[in-house]
Amino acid sequence: MVCKKSTASKVKTRKVAYKRKQHAHSYASRSWRILLLTVRAVQKFSSFKRKNFRIHEKKRIKKYILLKYHNNTKFRVENNSHASQRILNKYHNNTTFRNKIKSRSKIHTLNKYHNNFDFRNQYKARAKTEVLKKYYTNNSIRLKMIQRALNSYRSNNTLITRKSRQLYNQRRRILKKYASIQSHKCTLKHSNLYKQNLKEFRKIIREGPDYVCLSCGLALFRNQVIPFVKDKYINEKISYEIKKHIQSYLKYSSSTEQKWICKSCSDKIKKRQMPSRSVVNKLKVCDVPSELKRLNNLEKHLIALRLPFMKIVNLTSGKLSSRLSQKGTKGPLHCVPSDVEDTVIALPRPVDKSMM
């Protein structure tokens, strides 16, 4: 009779079998892993035998560092600071390196001086400025330079030097004479230019405010008026009443003289409106009576119905007299009414009451 295994023994048997299987699998995988590592090590070892391996490795490292330098700002700043500090330390501590740098910079400056025109001019200007600064600030250096120039002038007295000095003095005399002639020519040129400008100015101011407007009667300049053409304002299409109104705005005769109208009045009449400055708009100035013409300034002020208050200034400045200069008003203008009835009744005073 065969006895059956219990469930616990079956589970135990299965666990043992599973562990045995896993152990065998791990051993095989570990063996394969060791084999692969060995193959890679052999390949790498064989690659060390190549002649250009070092070159390839250097290129790879250089490429990596360049990429890192260009892409990483922090690395770039640190690298620059370390490099500058290292070079400075080497410059101050290593005499050979310092002399080498000095000789190289001297050769570079000389080559740049001889080949670069702009650099040469800048270098000369800078050197000249430094020498002049020393000359004007340091008295000892100034005296030394003057003494050196005098000694050089006295000691160098050969035939060629005397000839060159003679030519130099002759050239200076010619230049001085030429400069005086040129100044005279410039004076003549400027005087001719002044005369021409004065002539043009007189031509411009030849015409004054001689153009009288038909509507407002103001005397204006040429650029403020236009020729009066009747057909522009009065034609057959407009009605009789409008035509009559327009004719009332204008005061013109049938003479053949050239007639003018100001631009402001012209625009208003074209719009069928009365010009604000027209004489018809209650702006007609009557003749001054003969009784008022004989009055002086004080008497005119005594009987004036309106007393204007304004600030009058000279519109021109310079040597021109204030009496002859053109005047203008500045600021507000106030007209104050004046009651002159009592003054008119009291004046003229009798001789016995005039206290004269």
Give an overview of the whole structure:
The protein is flat, with a radius of gyration of 56 Å. The termini are far apart. The model has no long low-confidence stretch (mean pLDDT 80). The protein is mainly alpha-helical and 356 residues long. Among the domains are: 156-206; 211-270, no CATH class. The chain has helices at 7-48, 53-71, 73-93, 95-115, 117-137, 139-155, 159-204, 230-233, 240-249, 263-270, 290-293, 297-303, 341-346; strands at 211-212, 219-220, 225-227, 260-262, 306-314, 327-337. It contains 13 helices and six strands. Helix 2 packs across helix 3 (73-93).
Q: What structural keywords apply?
A:
two-stranded antiparallel sheet, mainly alpha, 356 residues
Give the SSE layout:
Layout: H1 7-48, H2 53-71, H3 73-93, H4 95-115, H5 117-137, H6 139-155, H7 159-204, E1 211-212, E2 219-220, E3 225-227, H8 230-233, H9 240-249, E4 260-262, H10 263-270, H11 290-293, H12 297-303, E5 306-314, E6 327-337, H13 341-346
Helix pairs in contact: 2-3, 3-4, 4-5, 5-6
Mean pLDDT: 80
Broad structural category = mainly alpha
Largest sheet: 2 strands, antiparallel
Distance between the termini: 182 Å
Describe the strand arrangement of the main beta sheet, using strand numbers. Answer: 1-2
Low-confidence residue ranges: none
